[in-house]
Automatic annotation (TrEMBL):
Keywords: Cell membrane, Disulfide bond, Glycoprotein, Membrane, Signal-anchor, Transmembrane, Transmembrane helix. GO terms for molecular function: amyloid-beta binding. GO terms for cellular component: extracellular exosome; Golgi apparatus; plasma membrane. Residues 165-260 form the BRICHOS domain. It comes from Zophobas morio. This is Integral membrane protein 2. It is found in: Membrane. PANTHER family: INTEGRAL MEMBRANE PROTEIN 2, INTEGRAL TRANSMEMBRANE PROTEIN 2. It is a single-pass type II membrane protein.
Length: 307
């Protein structure tokens, strides 16, 4: 029996032959770039950066700091401008002069001067209207006006302007309850006087505020008795203004400030014989206080020699 064997070389050849024969396909030419840009552009993927915890914490703290600063500054502005205006009373009152004819007008007129036009409709007769106008003029002469600025928050000061007083000069009174000093600003004479605060005639800010409202409501009869105090001015003017308080010092800026002392001995001029610039008066809750400076001529002479 004859056995035919397949050559080993041919088996290896068959094993190395590919199972599928890939023919070379014709490829299309690359598309032309319409915009004329090179086609070999390489895109790199950006790597996302992680925000660290420390950076986030710093941003939060910065934001909180900005907000806190805004709140703090806003509170300061509110306290200095808006809130201060709300806690400070400004108004005026008509103070009756001590006269028997005027005393009867307190309750009916509710402590207020009648409106100028209220007398024009009393009667159609011209004589009656003339009498009514004369009566109104008499009432006007028996009242004087005071403008008030009162510190209601800290009750530290009162400011009283007397623009027109029958027997005195126009002036401004400032009562500083921190330093217990009263300042008189002589607006016409461009000078200031300071003296100890008399708490017997000057009501505290809150009490004066309540009194003014009672006067407006018409159920409080004001004590308008005149209390005269004779004062003596001391020359030269003060050099150190620290002791008079900031409120008075601010009003007396660029003005000489003289000290007033109560004069208790000797014979002085009558009030009617004093210089017209030597009398100042105010109503600050209890009676009308008139200050008569008997030696004002010394001040005028001093200012004349030191111009």
């Amino acid at each position: 029996m004859t056995i035919l064997k397949k050559p080993i070389s041919s088996e290896k050849k068959d094993k190395l032959a590919p199972l599928v024969q890939n023919d070379q396909l014709a490829t299309a030419p690359p598309a032309e770039d319409v915009e004329g840009q090179p086609s070999d552009v390489v895109f790199l993927k950006a790597r996302a950066r992680r925000v660290s915890t420390a950076t986030t914490l710093c941003l939060i703290l910065t934001s909180l700091l900005v907000v806190s600063t805004g709140i703090f500054v806003g509170k300061i502005l509110y306290n200095q401008y808006i809130s201060a205006q709300m806690r400070r009373f400004t108004g005026y009152a008509q103070i009756p002069m001590p006269s028997e004819d005027v005393q009867a007008l307190y309750l009916p007129e509710r402590n207020r001067i009648p409106a100028p036009g209220s007398f024009n409709t009393v009667d159609d007769d011209d004589d009656d209207n003339s009498v009514a106008r004369d009566n109104f003029d008499d009432i006007i002469r028996n009242f004087f006006r005071e403008d008030f600025e009162i510190d209601l928050d800290g009750e530290k000061y009162e400011k009283i302007d007397v623009p027109d007083f029958r027997d005195g000069r126009s002036g401004r009174f400032i009562h500083d309850f921190n330093t217990n000093i009263t300042g008189i600003i002589d607006i016409t004479g461009n000078r200031c006087f300071v003296m100890p605060l008399n708490r017997g005639n000057v009501l505290p800010p809150r009490s004066l505020f309540d009194l003014i409202h009672k006067m407006w409501d018409g159920y409080y009869k004001v004590d308008t008795q005149v209390v005269r105090e004779t004062m003596r001015v001391v020359t030269p003017p003060l050099k150190n203004l620290k002791g008079i308080g900031s409120y008075i010092a601010k009003e007396c800026e660029n003005r000489p400030v003289y000290k007033l002392e109560k004069y208790v001995g000797g014979v002085v001029k009558r009030s009617a014989d004093l210089h017209v610039q030597a009398k100042f008066a105010q109503f600050s809750g209890n009676k009308i206080t008139e200050y008569d400076i008997f030696n004002l001529e010394d001040v005028l002479e001093y200012e004349k020699n030191n111009q």
